[in-house]
Amino acid sequence: MTDTVTARSSARAVERAIPRTDRLRLAVPNKGRLQEPALRLLHDAGLVFDEHDRSLVAHVENIDLDILFVRTNDVVEFVADGVADLGIVGEDLLVESGVDLPRLRSLGFGLCRLAAAVPNDAPVQAFGDLQGRRVATSHPNTTSAFFGARGIDVQIVPLSGAVEVAPRLGLADAIVDLVSTGSTLVMNGLRPIGDVLPSQALLVANPDALDRRAAEVAGIDTMLQSVIAARSQKYLMMNAPADRLAELERLLPGLESPSVIPLAHGGMIAIHSVVGADDVWDLLPRLKAAGASGILVLPIEKVIP
Ligand code: AMP
């Protein structure tokens, strides 16, 4: 509640400080875990702006967009109020806010999960074993809805940080907290018992802006999407004897089919193909075994289907 009030007043302050223009506004976290990958995505998408302006607003030079740098917890409020037309926010925060903003795209970073965990020596194995127990969390709405939907009655202990120390301090029997690698849980003698919500960074929109400025919003979404698609793929180039083509083609599905170029030396070809970034290491020895040589693995900047 207090957070919401703070977000509202900072949204109003921004409205007063930066007169509304026709330029679209994108709200981005001004610090924290999501900030650096969000800025990298925007730069990789080709947006030109000066990060020294990060304190409040950055003017994108090559398209009609302003970037508002706001607290991570304020992004949803800024977009919901229409102070920003678009926002980059963690899915966990969107769900916790209870605001139903249109989700345009999953952005492929900020990957984590809201998980329930208990002290290593607790007899608890499953969610149902938490019946009647105290659960500390900085996501009280999401946690309460999750247990409520399963008919499990828990007592929520809302905390704003350091949730993982709550059981050790005797404040709670379990926690529901964000986990990525799980090392913080291990360090605190905790064991996960199940996931409450998977989360990653999302591009969200103000419903009115989505309606009135659909083409501009779609333009920005496409720019981001082309980078996200490119990040999950690699461009492979290799030489091979022409008579091994059929065998190599079976290994290389590509975007459509591989490009095959004859080489100056008779009987040799060059093959170019796009493959999943996660498949590359598995694929390389199989390509070599099928006759490929001089294999190059290149990053892709953008993919526009
Ligand atoms: P911040 O508090 O500004 O550092 O941002 C926290 C947001 O980063 C969360 O709401 C999640 O969406 C995301 N995130 C990703 N991994 C984690 C993690 N292991 N712990 C906390 N937040 C994470």
The order of strands across the largest sheet is 2-3-1-4-11-5
Shape: flat
Structural class: alpha/beta
- Give the amount of beta strand, in percent: 25-35%
Helical content band: 25-40%
Oligomer: single chain
Distance between the termini: 43 Å
The number of distinct helices, counting runs of at least 4 residues, comes to 10
What would the average pLDDT be, to the nearest integer?
A: 94
The main sheet comes to: 6 strands, mixed
Radius of gyration: 24 Å
Low-confidence region ranges: none
- What is bound: which ligands? adenosine monophosphate
SSE string: HEHEEHEHEEEHEEHEEHHEHEEHE
β-strand number: 15
Question: What does this molecule look like?
Answer:
By secondary structure, the chain is α/β, with parallel strands linked by helices. The chain has ten helices and 15 strands. It has helices at 2-17, 35-44, 75-81, 91-97, 140-149, 183-187, 207-212, 214-231, 245-251, 280-289; strands spanning 24-29, 57-59, 65-70, 86-90, 103-106, 112-119, 134-137, 155-158, 174-179, 190-199, 201-205, 233-241, 259-262, 268-276, 293-299. The strands form three sheets. Strands 2-3-1-4-11-5 form a six-stranded mixed sheet, with helices on both faces. The chain has a five-stranded mixed sheet with strand order 8-7-9-6-10. It has a four-stranded antiparallel sheet with strand order 13-14-12-15. A hairpin with a 5-residue loop joins β13 (259-262) and β14 (268-276). The protein is flat, with a radius of gyration of 24 Å. The two termini are 43 Å apart. The protein binds adenosine monophosphate. Adenosine monophosphate (AMP) binds at residues 29, 32-34, 72, 90, 92-93, 110, 112, 178, 180, 199.
